[in-house]
Amino acid sequence: MKTFNQKQSFLTTGILSFQHVLAMFGATVLVPFITGLNPSIALMGAGVGTLIFHLITGGKVPVFLGSSFAFIAGILAVKESFGLAYATGSFLAVGAVYVLMAIIVYFIGSDFIRKIFPPIVTGPIIIVIGLILAPTAVDMAAGVNSPHISTSTSWTVAVITIMTIALTGIIAKGFFKMIPIIVGISVGYITSMIVGIVDFTSVINAPWIYSFQDFREMMIAPQFSLDAMKIIVPIALVTMIEHIGDITTNGAVVGKDFFKSPGLHRTLMGDGIATAFAGLIGAPANTTYGENTGVLAVTKNYNPTILRWAAVIAICLSLIGKFGALIQTIPEPVMGGVSFVLFGMIASIGVRTLIENKPDLSDLRNSIVVFTILIIGIVSIKESNPAAIQLTGQATLSGLSLADMVGVTLNGIINIIFPYFMKEKIVAKEQESKTKNMQFAIEKSK
Questions:
Q1: Is residue 444 part of a domain?
Q2: Alpha helix segments (H runs only) across 328-382
Q3: In terms of C-beta density within 10 A (0-12 exposed, 13-18 middle, 19 or more buried), how is residue 199 classed?
Q4: CB contact at 8 A, 16 and 178
């Protein structure tokens, strides 16, 4: 059963919301772990940022915002040369760039955006979003970052998690059919406890509640430098292209046109202001999360209220030290199994987008756009990605962003600009022919 704004009990809403928290938690706290920012502040930034996004978009888009991986290299570079405060200060500039782009999109109109993002572009982009995340899912399932867990144990736990999610989605009835992710994580967690790979040390050491003073000490007051901004701000080009792809994917899952309502300009503005807020408190820059779109695809429950409650839960987790630590005890292979399902669902949505819109792939104009996006996007999985363009010393255009840009450009040239000029040429020839016929008729009448 597919639901959008259907009212549900408080308990049902809470459990569904918690499922979204579990989906986003690992990635949201991983970015601060890598960059040196604080995970609790990252959760606060993600939760408040998501609420800001929903406020600006009128609560119409079932999206969750979490820590962006695209800025990791830039943050590390600024951290080394200037300090983390200058990285978070640069996020305010990134937010301003988003708002500026939102204003431009408002005046250009979403119809123009739709024209440059037809199904032959959006379908492959959605496929790429799912497939380029595949190595992450495989690494997590194999326990690459958990050397204390053997590979065989990791894969056993991951496969049990995957099978549980699949069987719950296929066999379960009623309420349990809506929470296959939570059921999968629960079974995977119990299995992990049985094989002895759950470590509760972090829970024991964590405080029950963070005090206001604790939060003040964890927050980073932003500082500003043009040199630091030169490293961070160009990455906004990459994340804005990803934003368009994510909103397209979300709309494809839900079956709604979010470019039209609430409008791409509102989603861009919501993302930008959320990122600016993150910069104010010392959290990583925010971005729309494909993991939560995957949850929507699995559960078929698209109610945006559930995402807002997930944001509230994330904020609460940022305040409750022991509870947040307990979530972090979920072993990597369990989340790897979950990621297998979520990322696979995203890729399958891209395939569905192509099938439902029935583009003529026997026409080279269409097929060249599709396979170019797929090849450029998927080749980024290689460790030394040959399809990458260096924008600045730290900002690189590659993977999904480069695939988006090349696909949009190719489609624009082949299917918009070239046909337009050909049409103009044909019209001119027809007009010339009519003029000659008229002149001939006049001369003949004389």
A1: no
A2: 332-357, 364-379
A3: middle
A4: yes
Query: What span, in angstroms and rounded, lies between the C-alpha atoms of 225 and 262?
Result: 35
Helix (H), strand (E) at residue 398: strand 396-398
Strand 388-390 with 396-398, pairing: antiparallel
Angle at CA 164, nearest 5°, toward 158 and 167?
A: 140
Please give the model's pTM, rounded to 2 decimal places. 0.72
Per residue of the chain (446 residues), give pLDDT as tens: 456 666 777 888 898 999 899 888 877 887 887 688 888 899 999 999 999 999 999 999 999 999 987 788 788 888 888 999 999 999 999 999 999 999 999 998 877 777 777 888 888 888 887 887 788 789 889 988 888 899 999 999 999 999 999 999 888 887 777 778 888 888 999 999 999 999 888 888 888 888 888 788 889 999 998 888 888 887 787 688 778 888 988 998 898 989 888 999 999 999 999 999 999 999 999 999 877 888 898 888 899 999 999 999 999 989 988 877 787 788 989 988 988 887 888 788 788 888 888 888 888 888 999 999 999 888 877 766 666 677 666 556 677 778 878 888 898 888 877 776 666 566 556 666 666 666 656 666 65
Cα dihedral sign, 282-285-135-193: positive
CB 52 within 8 A of CB 289: no
Q: At which residue do the structure tokens 């399932």 appear?
A: 141
Distance of CA 392 to the CA centre of its chain: 23
Is the preceding peptide bond at 207 cis, omega within 30 degrees of 0? Answer: no
Range of the domain at 327: 10-439
**Structurally, how many domains does the chain consist of?**
1
> 46 lies in a domain?
yes
* Residue 285 DSSP label: P
Structural domain contains residue 446: no
Residue 2 lies in a domain: no
Distance CA 407, CA 84 (A): 35
> 95's torsion region: left (phi>0), alpha (psi -120 to 50) or beta?
alpha
